[in-house]
Structures are given as structure tokens and as C-alpha cells.
Amino acid sequence: MTTVVSTRPAAPASAAGQRADRPPRPERRAGLLLTAPFFVIYLLFLVGPLLVGVVLSFFNATTVKSGLGDWVGLSNYREVVTDPLFWDALWHSVLFTLLTTPPLVLLALVAAVLAARVRRGRLFYRLAFFAPYVVPSSVVALIFLWMYTPEIGLIPKVFGAVGLPVPDFIGSTSGGWTAVTLMTLWWTFGFNFVLYTAAIQDVPPDVYEAAAIDGASPWQQIRHITVPLLGRTTSLVLILQVLASLKVFDQIYLLLAGGPNQSTRPVIEYIYDTGFTSYRGGYGAAATMVYFVIIVAISAAWYGLRRRRAAGAAA
Amino acid sequence: MTTITPPRPTAAQSAPSVNGAKLFNRLCAVCLTLFALIWLVPFFWALATSLRSDGSITEHPTSPFAGGWSLHAYSYAWDNYPIGSWYLNSLVISVLAVVFTLAFGSMAGFALAFLRYRGRGAVVALVAAGLMLPSEALVLPQFIEYRSFHLLGTFWALILPSVAAPLSVFVFQSFFRGIPVALIEAARIDGASWWRVYATVCMPLCRPALSTVAILTFITSWNSFLWPLLVLNQTKSQTIPVGLASLVNNSNIQYAEVMASSVLGFLPLIAVFLVFQRQIVQGIATTGIK
């Protein structure tokens, strides 16, 4: 992004005959004034919490009263990385990511490829697939809890009718993961579907025409044109999905409350518990920073990889 | 497109394969429609349950057409939970978040796209870095910062995080980059101040960007759950998602009432979606695929 902005021939060359490298004063002032409102809030409320988190993590702060408490150096961090419950929580976030990412990406790809071949009913498909995404997580949880209810819920009945063993969706760990995965699939799949649909529309139609003239069957067209051309989108959908899944909180908290015996508790809920149930602000902040570094490292690695690939393609 | 190439010599030969393609497309339509119908089941299930009486639900749980229909669950839910004030809170918060995000985001986007000034490079770099910052993971330090500013419990605590998100600036900046510089120059030569160029030349042109940012901000702000859960802790001043979440564990026996509340929770969003679906889809496509 930065490169695109800077190569752009910026704003009018000054008519007053000033030197080109120094923009006129009103322009400089307007730039500062127009940026200021956003930038002040940005620094205070997005960069601010990051700095607060770094500072807090070195103190024995509590969330009950203000003030930093005693300086404890790295001991919060030492405690976080030696706490097996933290690693369990991290593993649960990773497991949730592993469970949800493949079906969410694949299903979206398949549905978008199918939708591209269907002329009518675009609005209907969009409504069916994307409408769940705009529904608040607590509403989704209420509906799915009702559908998961043992004995009388719809989903246990369907499992039974198909001949699958009916898991204890809310009371057991493996059943809980099934429940959360199914619900997340229903809730968020539309987002990836929309990204794929938009990308498919960008494929020029004459590519297909040429293929059709050469006698490629629809199936061959999908395999050799659509899917390969969607490579870039797939990598984008994949990383967005991984980052979103790693930040899971709502679904697991609402459906299972980290349930049975904290066996599904994700990292954000661990931070929430230490910070707001045990009131250990400094310790929670240290856990936040460890987790934060992991997420930033993943997205930075992805950006780096994409940059290198883009540079390789340009060379 | 086909009209350009009608004298194709292979036309006769490819006729059967065209039929095959048609059949294939029809198969696709059938699969996708089945898939879509399955996806709609939770909505219908919630709706059907909410219109039944609790007695008939416990008697015939999975046959939605067994019991008598009534709107009793809705009036019960409305009377027993402060859904009205939850709605009002959500609405006020989301609308204010949208207004501030649009104003500040478009101003900054305009400055970054057209103006040269000291510190511009730093702002661009920080905004780009902020795009990959997982702010949701920072709730704990965020909470402590807001408390020391005495913002907890206020609507500002819910509005400011959306305004601070860099995505809106990014969308506006990339949209403004599409406006020809000649237009700006002409306005400047006519003597318009930069403020006037922004307000009267660029803003009317960027309606698509405005609606994209507005809708996405509205939906994320309306739906956010963890942050309002932490910030607002009295029942009366809660938002719809947090308020409804309090029903998750305590009244599981009254299925019809709980489903009626869910329907009340999702209907307004489905309405927003139906009205603005084109812009929503456009918005996600433009912000997702950079």
C-alpha cells in the first residue's frame, strides 16, 4: 500500500512558483488538521492499549483497583509460560483453528464455484449463506443451543436419523468441539463465500470462452481455470480465516462456557478469566502479550511471504 | 459476447457439449439450492419454535406443525426482558460509531491521498501496521486504559474502538486515489480551500465508500460481544448481543420465549442485510481483496 501511495504524483504543483519539494503552507496545515482527529484517537485507543499492556505485564497489577502495583519484572511472563493451563488454552485456540479453517475455506470455494455457474437466484444464495454472518453471536448461540438440546433438539434427531452416533453436544469435550465447529461453520462461512464470489467475477469471461471453444468440459474449466486463478484469493481467505479463528471467544464462551472442566477454553477466555475473575491484571497482560506476539508473527510472516512472491513474480 | 463470434466453424460440432454444459449448470443449481435450504433451517427453526407454546414443544419437539400457533412468546419476551432499551442502546451506539468513523476516517483518508505534510509517512506506516493488529486480543489492557480515563460504563467506551480502527481510513484513502487529481487541481485554482475541496468536491463523489464503511461499521459495532460485555455491566444499559446472552444459561426451559427473543435479535439485522446486501457484499469484497 505504502508504495502505491508514494509513487502517486502528489497534489497540484504550486502555482506560486515555490520549489516542488516543499508543499505550500496551507497544504501542510490542512493535511495535519484533517488527519489529527482520527490519528489522535488511533494513537490513544488502538496503539495505547498495546503500550498499556506492555507496561502492565511487568507489574503485579490487579483489575479491581487502579494503580500498577509492584514491579515484578519478568516473573509474570515466567509464570505464564510455565502454566499448563495457558498452554492448554493456546492448544484449544489452535485446535479450533485446525477444525474450522479447512471446511470454511473448502466449502466456501465449492459454493462460490457452483454459484458462478448458476444464473438466477443470486440474491437467494447470498441471503442463505451470508445472512447468518450479520446475526450477533449470542443469537446464533441461543438458536444452536436449542437445536443441540438432547432428546428434543433438531440436530440430535438428524444425527440419529442418518445413523450417526449422537454425541453429547454440550456436556462432553468431543461433542462440544463438534457443536462449536458446526455452529461456526453456519455462522461465518458466508464471509469467505463473498470473498470467493467477488474473485470469480474478476476472471475475464473470454478465458472461459476460449476454453469452451477448445472443447473443455465445465468440469475441466473449473479444475484448470477457475481454481488455479483463485490461488491468490485462497491464500487471502486462508490467512484471514486463521487469524479470525485464533481469536475465537464468543462461540465457545456462549455455547460451552469453556466447558466441561475448561477442556475447550480458548486463550481469550483464559485472559478473561485471569483478568476479570481472578483480577490479576498484570498476569493477564503478560498472557495477552505472549498471545499477541504469536498472532502478529503469523500475520507478519504471511505479509512477508506474499511480498516475496509478488517481488518474484515481478522479476 | 457470443454475438461477436457467430460464424464459428465448430458450432455444429460443439452442440452436444453445450447441452452437456447446460446439464452441468443445472446440476450445480440443484446442489447449491439444497445447500442453501439446509443453511436456512436454523432461521426457520427458531421462527417456528417461537410461534408455538411450550407445552406443545415438550410434547412434540421436532414437529414444528404440531401445536397451536400464538404470539404469546413474543409478548412474554418483550414484557420480561428490557429488549426495548437494549435495542435503543445498540442503535445509539452503532449510529454514533458510524457517524464518527465516517467523519474522521474520510478526513484522514483525504489528507493521506491528496496532501503532502510533515509526518504523513509516519501516519501511513502506522495505519498500515494497524491493519494487522489484532485489537480484539487486547481487551484486558484496553479495559484498564478505559478505566483510568473513567470511560467504563459510558457509550464512549463502545464508540471509540470503532473510530480508532484503521480500516475505514484505508478504504477511504484507496477510494480517493481513484479520483482524478485534475479535478482537485481545478477546484484549487478556482480558489477553494482544502477543507472545501474535501467537503464539496470529494465527499459527494465518495458515496460508495461512505456506504461501505457505514454498513460494515454498523454491523461490527452492533454485533460486538466481548467488549460491551466487559464495559457495560448493568442490565438496563446493555446492548442487544450482551442482553440476549444473559438468557443463554438461565431460561433454557422456556424454548418458545428464548426463540422469540432470538428472532427479535436477528430480524432487524436481516432487514438491514436485505436492504443493503449489495453494498455489504461490495464492501467485503473491496476491503478483503486489497
Structure write-up:
With 315 residues, chain A is mainly alpha-helical. Chain A is built from 14 helices and no strands. Chain A is 72% helix and 0% strand. The N terminus of chain A is likely disordered. Chain B has 15 helices and no strands. Chain B starts with 14 loop residues before the first helix and ends with a helix. Classes of the chains: A mainly alpha (315), B mainly alpha (290). Chains A and B meet through α1, α2, α4, α5 and α6 of A and α1, α4, α5, α6 and α7 of B.
Task: Name some characteristics of this structure.
heterodimer; A: 315 residues; mainly alpha; 14 helices; 72% helix; B: 15 helices
List the helices and strands and how they pair.
The complex is a heterodimer of chains A (315) and B (290).
Chain A lengths: L1 H6 L17 H32 L18 H8 L1 H34 L4 H9 L6 H12 L5 H9 L10 H29 L3 H9 L4 H12 L1 H16 L3 H7 L10 H11 L3 H34 L1
Helix pairs in contact in A: 2-14, 3-14, 4-8, 4-11, 4-13, 5-8, 6-12, 8-11, 8-12, 13-14
Chain B lengths: L14 H36 L3 H6 L12 H9 L2 H32 L5 H12 L7 H10 L7 H9 L2 H10 L4 H9 L4 H12 L1 H17 L2 H6 L8 H6 L1 H4 L4 H34 L2
